[in-house]
Design a protein that fits this description.
The protein is built from 1 helix and 13 strands. The chain is mostly beta strands. Strand 5 and strand 6 form a beta hairpin.
């Protein structure tokens, strides 16, 4: 009986702790699916594109001089997963994940691929390749390569992408951080 009471107290406190942690994030998720029908060799084939977008914003407050609390303007992490079905089976044939980041007030899209991910940016309303990151063997580190620099990148605890590289002009290790949106 004593063990049952201790177990129920532990489970109850775990549930309250989990609910408290979830309450500190504003979470929005939307899914849209578009279906088109085409005839290929006389056979009708439905093609589907499903876009699942998730946005998470941490909720934090700042205490003002008059004692009131103001909500801080925190960055929103946006993830988009695009799934494409090109045939009549019930499974999606291709899936692409994108995550959005900012650096120096520029917006970047990280798009996953088989070897790591590609970093794109919008220039003159055109998507252009900024850099690529190749996942290193069995680690959470990436070889980062752009036209201007080569370094090692990783995702920190806040979900930001951090790049470390050697700058010969400064003769020092330099760190750049892409902030999750």
């Amino acid at each position: 009986m004593k063990n049952l009471i201790i177990l129920s107290a532990f489970l109850t406190s775990s549930v309250f702790y989990a609910q408290d942690q979830a309450a500190n994030v504003d979470h929005i998720e939307t899914t849209t699916t578009k279906t088109t029908s085409v005839k290929v060799n006389g056979e009708k084939i439905e093609r589907k594109v499903k876009v699942n977008t998730k946005a998470e914003t941490p909720i934090t407050f700042e205490k003002q001089a008059d004692g009131t609390l103001d909500r801080k303007n925190n960055p929103t992490k946006i993830e988009r997963e695009i799934s494409i079905d090109n045939d009549n089976d019930p499974f999606y044939d291709e899936t692409t994940k994108e995550v959005f980041y900012t650096y120096n007030d520029n917006n970047y899209t990280f798009t996953s691929n088989d070897t790591g991910f590609v970093i794109n940016t919008m220039e003159n309303e055109q998507l252009s390749k900024h850099a690529k990151a190749l996942k290193l063997n069995n680690s959470n580190r990436y070889l980062f390569k752009s036209d201007k620099l080569t370094g090692v990148g990783y995702f920190n605890a806040e979900g930001n992408f951090v790049i470390e590289y050697y700058d010969p002009e400064k003769d020092a290790l330099v760190t750049k951080t892409y902030l999750s949106k």
